[in-house]
Amino acid sequence: SQKIEQNSEALNIQEGKTATLTCNYTNYSPAYLQWYRQDPGRGPVFLLLIRENEKEKRKERLKVTFDTTLKQSLFHITASQPADSATYLCALDRSSSNTGKLIFGQGTTLQVKP
Amino acid sequence: EAEVAQSPRYKITEKSQAVAFWCDPISGHATLYWYRQILGQGPELLVQFQDESVVDDSQLPKDRFSAERLKGVDSTLKIQPAELGDSAMYLCASSLEVSSYNEQFFGPGTRLTVL
To answer: Which of A7, A58, A72, B110 is deepest in the core (most CB within 10 A)?
Structure first.
């Protein structure tokens, strides 16, 4: 069956360091992958989308990579700040026809300590 | 800045009762989604609308859940009767159109507790 896995354990890092979060998937051939941020008690907020023909994408302090051979995406936050503390979700379209039917990973909680 | 509105924010009910959640998407967004998120898990898609039509409801437990978007704008999700296992956050999202290249904008959610 289709499956997306993210690190279930919380990631604790020191302010100023780079946080790296992992998203692995099986039984998919996605054309793209999305990353969202979710704060406690709130809905997810879109951060980045990366397509299969893009190896890397950047937005300010965020960087996402996409390796379709390894079936893995890495999400990096450089120069991390306590305000970056949140749960980060990756998502793929569960259909083969790009219709927005996203399936989400369980999320990884990031805690940045001052 | 335009936002997706949901109400109520919190709902406590007893099992076997009926509950309803309301969502108003961002103006001009043709596609509307309802998700369920259990604590510690990612959101799970329940139903997807394009305007007033259901595009996908394959994950919706149709024996007790129903969803409608009569005029292609706001939407209601209903559970009848509620069960203990329905306790979760119910999220509404919208996007410009049916395409996974479009980001989805989420509302604040309705936290449902079934006693």
So the answer is: B110
> What's the CA gap between B43 and B110, in Å, rounded?
13
Tell me the per-residue pLDDT of A37-83, one tens digit each, with 9 for 90 and over.
999 999 999 999 999 889 899 999 999 999 989 999 999 999 999 99
How many other C-beta atoms are found inside a 10 Å radius of the C-beta of residue A10? 11
CA distance B44 to B88: 11
B100, A99: Cβ pair inside 8 Å? yes
CB-CB under 8 Å, A100 with B104? yes
- Per-residue pLDDT tens listing for chain B (115 residues): 789 999 999 999 999 999 999 999 999 999 999 999 999 999 999 999 999 999 999 999 999 999 999 888 999 999 999 999 999 999 999 998 777 678 999 999 999 999 9
Question: Which amino acid would we find at residue A42?
Answer: R
Distance CA A76, CA A35 (A): 11
Q: Is A105 on the interface with B (CB under 8 A)?
A: yes
List the single residue in A45, A94, A104 with the smallest CB-CB distance to B43.
A104
Cβ contacts (< 8 Å) between A42 and chain B: which residues? 108-109
SS3 for A102?
Answer: strand
Cβ contact, residue pair B43, A105, below 8 Å: no
Give the span between the Cα atoms of B82 and B114, in whole angstroms. Answer: 7
